[in-house]
Structure formats: structure tokens, C-alpha cells
Amino acid sequence: MPVLSEQIRERIRAEFPKYPDRRAVTLPALHIVHDELRQVSPEAIREISELLEIHPAEIHDTMSFYNFFREPDRPLGKRRVWVCRSISCMLRGGEELLENLSHKWHVGPGQTSSDGSVSLEYAECLGACEGAPCILVDDECHMNVSEEDVERIVGKQ
Amino acid sequence: MPSFEPVLLARIAKPNSAKLETYRADGGYKALEKALGMPPADVTNMVKDSVLRGRGGAGFPAGLKWTFLPKDHPGPIYLCVNADESEPGTFNNRILMELDPHQLIEGIAIACHAIKSEKAFLYLRYEYGRSYRVLDAAIKECYAAGLLGKNILGKEFNLDIVLHRGAAAYICGEETGLIESLEGKRAWPRIKPPFPAIEGLFRKPTIVNNVETLCCVTHILNRGSEWFKSIGVPPDPNNPRDMGSYGPKLYCISGHVNKPGCVELPLGVTARELIDEHAGGVWKGRKAKAVVPGGISMGFLSADELDTPLDFNGPGKAGCLGLGTAAVVVVDDQTSMVDVLYNCCRFMSHESCGQCTPCREGTAWMTKILERIRAGHGKMEDLDTLTEVAGSMGIIPGTTICGLSDGAAWPVKNAIKKFRGDFEEYIASGRRSVTSAQELMAGAH
């Protein structure tokens, strides 16, 4: 039984005509799989490599560089909450926000809550410094947030 | 000086500013129409004459870069739009993409006509999800209106734009790191030469331009190179290599100010004017201790250096690395530079791609030394070690492939030199400022 559904495969194939070379579809394919499955397993890598006609090691090499894609030992929760820790946010309480959320949700940075609802991450500059401290929930940015704002946005107490 | 009229941000407060309909109602795509009526070389010359310098950090003249492409190349030639904006403190590209995407798309199309490219890849940092959705919608509008695709505006000009999302890595903003990442590889910057104009994406001639740079191109076509040169700072007569700092610039202001934000001003505004007149002053009635002039990799201005003009030369004269992204971050006088520098070093250590040993090891060791100081175990000689490590890494000493390392070294050099007292006092007092939040992160991936 393949890990990648036909629908995922179709979405990956739809990227091919955009690029002169299939290897360039590595990141788009990883994003598609990761969004859907909340992790990229060795089986998924093998199946992507067959579609892209490159070696699985090449996919893994690229994937591991980014420190973004989760492997099966640490799958993502339903929501991924990134709290910015870079300079502008640090100067306006970003690190304390991360700490408070971490204690409240009983989840360290890089970990997922035991109910699987939230993965907490620290982020390097999210490019929303005029609204520090800011967070990214999946890929949607929220600025000037308090702990209560984050709980409301994420729907987790 | 005539009164300054913003152009890059002129539309962002309007309702539906991101829509094609409103953009065209404001005269949008007239610049492209004009460009398509000109031979490509004339468009390039116009941009070259304007002395538009790249807004992404390096300040290289954009028109000149375009002339480096091989003549009469059979193609394909590619344009890469660098939208991997990740320098801490910088957010102007995000505003341009979210609120006026057609200004950028028009600039891309003009540039592609000039360099004879039929394909542009817009490399967008992953974190800019809203930019992605806005640009995706804007590109679809353009295809439907005949502004992208085949025979654009009825002319013999074809162009496709591909939106390509990154995966949260600062190094992808380095132009050859970006190219490697786009090709599906780890984003390890390439040794240059060959420069991308000769051998870039998929080994084809490639131009990489920043978002704000391309937005400026749209206005240069509309208003002419003389208009562009009527704004900003002319070349320094005492510096024969200076090309001047012309045109409008988006300055980002964040950190300890009352009103953080992004403002468009003529190049050459001083840090003090930015803080006092455009950001409501330093917060809580305090004074500025240090100011980052253009993203953390440029280093720091001290409180005595706030009258430095933020043009392409000013920060360098004050010992900073350069203008960088013109992202100004203000640090108030209640904050220790030890904590600020630690934050900068930790960022660079996290983002070093690991390819060159002096950068991978240097950024890690500088962070560790600062961790030790912040844990209350610092020694005075640590300050010399920091300076020594910082002096040994980067393109300037010639030990690394790309400039990330210079940007990692500069805040260290500036901080120890300009704020040595902060560090000595901290070490002598045996203080400790590692927070529990930082301890949490230290154990995380």
C-alpha cells in the first residue's frame, strides 16, 4: 500500500511543467506531503524519488538541510505554532511569550502537545517586526500577540 | 530639495490595493506597455542610467548586473526574484507583496523584457503565507487578463512566473544559495565566479533581483531615470568608486520605539530622523543605546552615531558593514548589549549553512562564549577571543564562500568595540541573564 495517495501524486505531477528539471520539484513535493501527512517518512521519500526520478538520498539530503520537515519520530500536531525569537521580538517579549505558552501547554519548543493539537516551535525572524512579538500559525502570521491572543487564535487553553 | 512623494507605498492604504482592477485604475501596467515598446537594451540602459542599486543588501547596481548576461544567448535566461526576506528586522518586501503585488509583477515583466527572459521564478520564504496567497491570486488575474502568458499586451513577449516556496532557511536569500535551493538541493552558496549571469539557475544565465529593486524598476520606467536621480544622495566627490545612493527607500523601524513600521523616504535619512520623526521616538521615554542600521548583519551604531545618514555609504563610515536592508532596530538604554549580541550570534549560528568551517564553527563558538558570559562564567579575555574569531571569518578575510559570515562577525566586532564597557561591567559583576526561555530552547531542535 503506497504512502502517497493518488491525489497527492497528482498534485506533485502538476508541478512538473513549471520547471525544466524534476529535481526542482523536491521542495514543492516535500511541502505537499508534509502538509498532508504532518511528516515525511522514508517510504514517502522513496515514493517522491520515484516520481521525481532521482535517488531517495538526494531527497533526504535536501530535506534534512531545512530543519523544517518532520520525520516520523516527531510528527507534527494539527497546528504548528511558531514564536519568533529574533531581535525585534526578543526586545518586545517574544521569548517570554514562548516560555509561557510552553508551560501552559506542557510542551517544549520542538515538541507536540500530548493531545496532538499543537506543535510549538521557536522561529527565527518572521519578517513581521513592526508587530513584535509575532507568531506564525501554520503559515498565517499574527502580530502584537499576547498569550491570551495565541490561545484564542489556536483554540487551545 | 523638492517635497518627497512616496511611490512604492503610494497605494498600500487604498481599498483592494492588491487587485488588478484597482492597480490598472491607478495607471498600472502602463510602465510595462512603455517598456514593451522599447528595445530591451534601451530598457536596461534606462535602469542603468538611474543607478538603481539593489535593495536586498549588497547595493549592486541592478542595470549593470543585467548587462553581465552573455550577448545573443540562445536562451533560456531566467529571472529569480529574491523574496526570501529573512534578515532580522526586515519586512518591507512582505508589505510590498501583500499590499501591492501588481507593482512587483509589473517590475518583473519589465525586467524580463530587458533581459530577454520568458520565465521568472519567485522564491518566497515559506513564512510569508499571506504573500503567497496574494501573489498567487494576482498572478492568476494577470494570466486571465493577458498580462502573463503568451503575447503579452499583444506584443511578441511571453512570460511565465512560477511561485516557489522556501522552507525557513535564511541562507536561501544569498543569491546562489537561492539558486541551489530552487534546483532542489541544500542551499549551499556557490563559489563565484561563475556569477549567475553567466551560469546560474539550471546552469543557464540568470539574474537574481530583490522585490523592492524590481518595484523600483516599475517607477523608473514610468517616470524616467532623471526622476529617480532627483531623489537621494549624489556620489561622494571624495570617493571615486561611489555611485551615489539614489531613489526612494523603504526603511523598516522596529524594536524599542513607540511606533514601529515601514516608511518610504529618500535614501540618506539619518537614524535619528527615522526614530524621532517616523517612529514616535524611543519607547518609555528612554534613550537609544544602540541602533542596528540595516539588519543585524550590518552591526550597530552607538548613541553618538545616530546622525549617520542611512545611504549606501553612511553606515560604513561609522564602522558598520553597510546599509544592508535598511532595517533599523532600536535598542534602549536599559538593555544590555551582551543580551542583544547573544541574540544576533544565536541567529547566525542557527542559520549558518555549515558549508565553510570558519562560519559553521565560528558562529557556534561565538554563541557559546556569549552563553558562558551570560551564565555568569565570563572572563575578560573572552572579549578578545570573540574579536579574534570574528576577525577570522568571512569573505573579507577570505575564508568563506558567502557573506553570511561577514554578517555574523560584524555585530560582534561593533559590539565589543563600541560597547566594551557593557561587556566588561557584565563580566566583572558576575551577573547572569540566561532566561528560562533560553534554557528551554537550548534543548530543542
How do you describe this structure in short?
Chain A is α+β, with helices and mostly antiparallel strands and 157 residues long.
- From the spread of the alpha carbons, the general shape of chain B counts as globular
Unreliable stretches of chain B, pLDDT < 50, 5 or more residues?
none
- Give the name of the CATH architecture of the largest domain in chain B: 3-Layer(aba) Sandwich
What is CATH's topology name of the largest domain in chain A? Answer: Glutaredoxin
Series of secondary-structure elements of chain A, N-terminal to C-terminal: HHHHEHHEEEH
Count of alpha and pi helical runs of chain A: 7
Biggest sheet features of chain A: 4 strands, mixed
Q: Kindly estimate the percentage of residues of chain A that lie in beta strands according to DSSP.
A: 5-15%
Main features:
heterodimer; A: 157 residues; alpha+beta; Arc Repressor Mutant, subunit A; Glutaredoxin; 2 domains; 4 strands; elongated; B: 445 residues; alpha/beta; Rossmann fold; Ubiquitin-like (UB roll); de novo design (two linked rop proteins); 18 helices; 42% helix; 12% strand; globular
Q: Can you describe this structure?
A:
- The complex is a heterodimer of chains A (157) and B (445).
- Chain A is an alpha+beta fold.
- Chain A folds into two domains: 6-65, Orthogonal Bundle (Arc Repressor Mutant, subunit A); 79-154, Glutaredoxin.
- Chain A has helices at 6-13, 26-37, 42-52, 56-66, 87-90, 94-105, 147-154, and strands at residues 79-84, 118-123, 135-137, 140-142.
- The mean pLDDT of chain A is 96.
- By secondary structure, chain B is of the alpha/beta class.
- Chain B has three domains: 20-230, Rossmann fold (3-Layer(aba) Sandwich), CATH 3.40.50; 245-332, Ubiquitin-like (UB roll); 337-443, NADH-ubiquinone oxidoreductase 51kDa subunit, iron-sulphur binding domain (de novo design (two linked rop proteins), Up-down Bundle).
- Chain B contains 18 helices and eleven strands.
- Chain B has helices at residues 20-25, 30-36, 40-50, 62-67, 92-99, 101-115, 129-144, 175-182, 211-223, 225-229, 271-278, 314-317, 337-351, 357-377, 381-391, 404-418, 420-429, 436-442, and strands at 78-83, 119-124, 160-165, 206-210, 232-233, 245-246, 248-255, 261-266, 288-292, 301-302, 327-332.
- Chain B has a five-stranded mixed β-sheet, covered by helices on one side. A four-stranded parallel β-sheet of chain B has the order 3-2-1-4, with helices on both faces.
- In chain B, strand 9 and strand 10 form a beta hairpin.
- In chain B, helix 2 runs parallel beside helix 6 (101-115), helix 2 (30-36) packs across helix 9 (211-223) and helix 13 (337-351) runs antiparallel to helix 14.
- Chain B: GO terms for molecular function: 4 iron, 4 sulfur cluster binding; FMN binding; metal ion binding; NADH dehydrogenase (ubiquinone) activity; oxidoreductase activity.
- Chain B: InterPro entries: NADH-UbQ_OxRdtase_51kDa_CS, Nuo51_FMN-bd, Nuo51_FMN-bd_sf, Nuop51_4Fe4S-bd, Nuop51_4Fe4S-bd_sf, SLBB_dom.
- Chain B: Its EC number is 1.6.5.11.
- Chain B: It comes from Lacipirellula limnantheis.
